[in-house]
Amino acid sequence: MIIQFTFEPKPKMQKQLIETFTQHEFLFAKGTAPRPDTEIWVTYGEDVTKETVAALPQLKWISVASAGIEKMPLVYLSDRQIHVTNARGIHKTPMAESIVGHILSLYRSLPAIYQLNEKKEWDKPKGSRELRGETALILGPGAIGAEVARLLTAFGVHIIACNRSGNSVEEAEQTIRLDELTNYLGEANIVLSLLPSTNETRHLLTNEHFEIMKEDVIFMNFGRGDVVAEKHLVAALESSPKRHAVLDVFEVEPLPPTSKLWQLENAIISPHISSHSAFYVERAMEIFSENLSKWESGDTKLRNLVDLKAGY
What we know:
Blueprint: E1 2-5, H1 11-20, E2 25-28, E3 40-43, H2 50-54, E4 61-64, H3 74-79, E5 83-85, H4 92-107, H5 110-119, E6 135-139, H6 143-154, E7 158-163, E8 174-177, E9 190-193, H7 207-212, E10 218-221, H8 230-239, E11 244-247, E12 267-269, H9 280-296
Parallel strand pairs: 1-2, 1-3, 3-4, 4-5, 6-7, 6-9, 7-8, 9-10, 10-11, 11-12
Helix pairs in contact: 4-6
């Protein structure tokens, strides 16, 4: 069986795969199209197009070493009955640490302290707050959201989880349905979106939602940028300087220099790096190896199997 990688894991990882799964031929070629006889394609996902897949008549499974698959031709892949898995869950540690780090930074006035350091000024910033007793509302509480909830709970934060079903999230004190969101937004000091990009979530948050939020809310988007139209976000930040937005994802990436978000002092721009970690590829390869062992035994109930019709 031909297994094509269109990125190059470290040589040690390549060697381990080749020695563990001896019956397969592994090809590692960054930046090139898969060979026509490829049956399993391992990729970050950006190079998966309808045209590329159409040139692979024997393709049966695409293993995506990232979580996002929204740009892939999902309908075509479903019609071809190609299995797609992703690396959902491997980001929870670095992303949760990034998210909590940003929250603590704002609550304890760290950006202002850093600015005073640069100016060599001995002064005391105003506005520092405590997390204890605050409320965080997490939209899309999957593995990442659960880890954020666990960490924030240790600081005494009340956690409200919001998902489509309303099924209880263990790490949250309260779970609500997505259609109940407007009833609870006004209670939250921190609103964190970890939602994927689907037809249901695209531009889900509107002016109405931001009008309900507290004047000093911290809005964080670490899921997908199109959950909110940029113009609505800009308007919400301009209307209340006490508000903050911490953004790791955007409608258009890279964020254009002309975007108003760059000009707002209460917007923190993170260039889609919250998931970066030295262990990223290692964790993705652990999922791939587990699934390849299943695949060899004829088990197609793979870990992180994507519902191509739902889009996640």
